[in-house]
Amino acid sequence: MYVYDEHDRQIAAERVAQFRDQTERALAGELREDEFLPLRLQNGLYVQRLAPMLRIAVPYGMLRSAQLRRLARITRDYDKGYAHFTTRQNVQLNWPAIEDVPDILAELAEVEMHANQTSGNCIRNTTTDQFSGVQADEITDPRPYCEIIRQWSTFHPEFAFLPRKFKVAVNASEHTDRAAIQVHDIGLQMVRNDQGELGFRVHVGGGLGRTPMVGPVIREFLPELDLLTYLEAVLRVYNRYGRRDNKFKARIKILVKALTPEGFAAKVEEEWSHIKDSPTRLTEEAISQFKGYFTEPDYQQVPDVTDTLATQRFENREFDQWITHNVDSHKHPGYAIVTLTMKKTGTPPGDVSDRQLEQIADLAEKYSFGEVRVTHQQNVVLADVRKDELFELWQAITPMGFATANLNTLTDVICCPGGDYCALANAKSIPVAEAIQRQFDDLDFLYDIGNIDLNISGCMNACGHHHVGNIGVLGVDKKGQEFYQISLGGSSHHDAAIGKILGPSFARDDMPEVIQKIINVYVDHRTEEEPFLDTYRRIGIEPFKERVYA
Amino acid sequence: MPDLITSDGSIRKDNWAVVPRPADGDSLDIPDQPSLIPADLWLAGKEHFENREDIGVWLDSHEEPEILAGVVNELPVIAVNFPKFSDGRGYSIARLLRERLNYRNELRAVGDVLLDQLQFMKRCGFDTYVLRADKDINKAARCLNFFTQGYQAATDTDVPLFRRRAS
Ligand code: HEM
Ligand code: SF4
């Protein structure tokens, strides 16, 4: 994992001092509210329905045990003892006091954390696949490139006041995309060209929100050394020509659409031609330095426990289910990737208490080299667990509530905080997730219907990624009443697609029943082994409409 | 005369006037003091201003600095207007003037210029700043220097941190 050097430490300390100064001037009335707003947002500080909210950056989702423990202490000392994992791999606090934020930032800086650019119209935290570096099918480990982008985008003097927020995601797996890159402003897919050279396929102009779009490819192959100069060209074109007259049309996707992907790409190439060979061009040495931070942990030669595991699985059905669903294969023999699910029915998806943060820190130390990753589905990954310790780990996490064996199933809901916390919400979303989880409490049925992404947002901003859920739920407001609109057929993977709206919205109480009917249509129509999305794509939306509105 | 602040933190008197764009049909009215006039009007009437040390230009945030390609160094001062501090186009304009058009004379930020943006402006190549009137110029020097270094190459340095680390 990346470790700060003296430069990073100094910059982090200066940032805290700067924000302390800004906060003091704001509280003294020297900064108008609209002047302080972008400054506080660029330090992660929102002002919400009930209290401020602080969004803490977790670069590409990675946390060390010491950082988890510090987060736990911060939630206790400055908040109500819990935090929230978000779909952008960050952590949110829901109740800090504005005056305390500079102190919180100082506490974070001590463990090499920050809240830089977690909000505001600037380049946000770069996200990636939570299985980076440990899966067999990736082109290369994307994390060094994410860190390169993080440093380049941090306090970039030209791009701190963009027309709108800007999000970059990187994926390196050939078969899956856990980072949802095609619904980001820039999505980078790592590839090798015919000569075997490493580079990126560049998608630009994806995004959710009010006008959801899948980002088209604007360059099939960008050599790795050109990463930063090319990003700089894209951002400069966007900064100059992105619309600033209307906040709903200010995203880069609107510019790409207006110019056409080809027209936009041509503008970027022209800009890039001037800066391609500038000092911002990466060097082999720089890349290998960054790679040096993400070397393999000290893997042991561990005994082959296939037989023991088979026996344990045979003798314990719940353990067997957990292995099947929450444990993935690892590129190193004898190890496995474990996902701790934060989706126990009755707990808001992604919510984590101070005690749980400490438990996770302990688990990471004991079983996974002291590191975890936060996933965009609001779960937590122990990426390097010895197979011969899986049973013990499972026994440890079951009472903690992290062993719900529902990863990637219908009840592994992605859900925004909605009306319970968020000032922008049109409707609550947490109780809807819970009601659906209760409806589908039979694990055997869940397994039978296979992997389904169910995503819920409380308003058009789409924090819960509802557009790209196989089933999406969106809270809408009708004359002050909460209603929910359903969309079907979305995907955030390699086959990214925006879901199609089913029809008129439903009352909250009807939601479990509506989802049940949708599932029943699928069960009636599927061919053997056919996932929900494939059935939907084959039969279309009509059969679902007919049943649900019958 | 109002004050301005320079990128090295010193405060000095300033008597350059920013001459607004005249309404359609009206002609440009240049006051009896050093003046910054709209860049396109300067270009259109360039021969009238040959050798005038007291005429510079200003660009608005939506304007293209490329119109000045090849002639920038005939100007003693180029100002870039920030109509609203949150309009970030001026930063790109400054870098283009410095790094692409090779402008070497004074580059000035005018308009909604606040304290907390100064260091970004400096890194993008501005060297003088006319703060919005209600802002305390005595706090500007500190705000120009919150950070002792940056991660990126910009106009102030062509050595990004990754190159400094490698050496
Ligand atoms: C109370 C807390 C929150 C507030 C006030 C908030 C606010 C917003 C706003 C204003 C947008 C819209 C921006 C736009 O359309 O450009 C947005 C989008 C988004 N938010 Fe949140 N959010 C909150 C919590 C969360 C949480 C908890 C998550 C993760 C579960 C999240 C993830 C996202 C994502 C992924 C988008 C993406 C939209 C896109 O790509 O266009 N947010 N949020
Ligand atoms: S989707 Fe809307 S309601 Fe949900 S967190 Fe985002 S802004 Fe709030």
TrEMBL record, chain A:
UniProt KW keywords: 4Fe-4S, Heme, Iron, Iron-sulfur, Metal-binding, Oxidoreductase
Annotated transmembrane regions: none
Matching SUPFAM superfamilies: Nitrite and sulphite reductase 4Fe-4S domain-like, Nitrite/Sulfite reductase N-terminal domain-like
Chain ranges of the Nitrite/Sulfite reductase ferredoxin-like domain: 53-111, 346-397
GO MF annotations in UniProt: 4 iron, 4 sulfur cluster binding; heme binding; metal ion binding; oxidoreductase activity
Entry-linked Gene3D superfamilies: Sulfite Reductase Hemoprotein, domain 1, Sulfite Reductase Hemoprotein,Domain 2
PANTHER family: BLR3264 PROTEIN, FERREDOXIN--NITRITE REDUCTASE, CHLOROPLASTIC
Protein's UniProt name: Nitrite/sulfite reductase
UniProtKB/TrEMBL annotation, chain B:
UniProt xrefs under InterPro entries: UCP030820
Pfam assignment, any one: DUF934
Name the UniProt record assigns to this protein: DUF934 domain-containing protein
